[in-house]
Amino acid sequence: MLSRVANSIYWMCRYIERAENVARFISVNLNLLLDMPSEKGKHWEPLVMITGDQDRFEKSSPDYNQEAVIRFLTFDRTYPNSILSCLAAARENGRSIREIISSEMWEHLNNFYLELAGNGSLTMALEDPHSFFKIIQMRSHLFTGLMDSTMSHGEAWNFARIGMMMERADKTSRILDVKYFMLLPQADLVNTPIDNIQWTAVLKSASAFEMYRKEHHHITPRKVAGFLIFDSEFPRSIRHCIAKAQTCLHRISGSPSGSANNLAEKRLGRLKADLEYTDIDEVVDHGLHEYLDGLQTRLNQVDGAIGTTFFNLTPLIETSTNEQ
Known about the structure:
Layout: H1 3-35, H2 45-51, H3 54-60, H4 66-75, H5 83-96, H6 103-116, H7 120-127, H8 129-150, H9 155-183, H10 193-205, H11 209-215, H12 221-230, H13 238-253, H14 263-276, H15 280-286, H16 288-311
């Protein structure tokens, strides 16, 4: 497969996953406000914190209110991670590889973008945000379903799945990091009803609430973090995403499971092994924030290695000499 084509389908699916994640974060936050109305002013800033783009937001708006954050995260064309920008980038990547993806995928993606870019979208997002962001989530899921059911599960599909899994793992780590490190305003609120509501919101941000409750009866920070990082069966846990990405990578390269024939396989395999042989107690003892921060760096390094190995792109992060 041409590196240009592989790069386009990888990023098309990363952008779709990113747009869906942002829509879900906003939707969960809107529901959280119903439970904590007195905290309204404090619940919009963490959504921007998750993106890591507070400086960019504050240049356009000094206040973290609902309308400003929705405009920034959804419709700001100058912000590359807004939902509209992500869909525009996904559409452009999809347009360049129309001969690779199915016609159903392209038609859905094109309509998805055009409807969001339409004149009535901003009005609906501000007047009925619950319905608006639910629609975005469902259309993103529909794209994934179309990809799985109308596209041959060959090289292109595997690159698409890797992009989706890498983006999903990154966003799950950021959700946890922001909650643990920044969301709770006062230490004396730990283990209070407010804290429990917020940890429930964290689970819902990863569409994990029902699956978590099937496995655990009580919500505790340690169990929530352990579930979202290390659960091997939940499809949005970091461990599950990395395992699926590695499987797709081996299918592309043709190397057997347990081997590593290129830098991308080495980095992804090492990360997968660390997730399999680490538990939440060890992570908490050494610092959850520090662990998640390191995990995000390693995810970026895997992404850089995928770029140099398959797309002929220069990595953004220096490669250490022992990985050559």
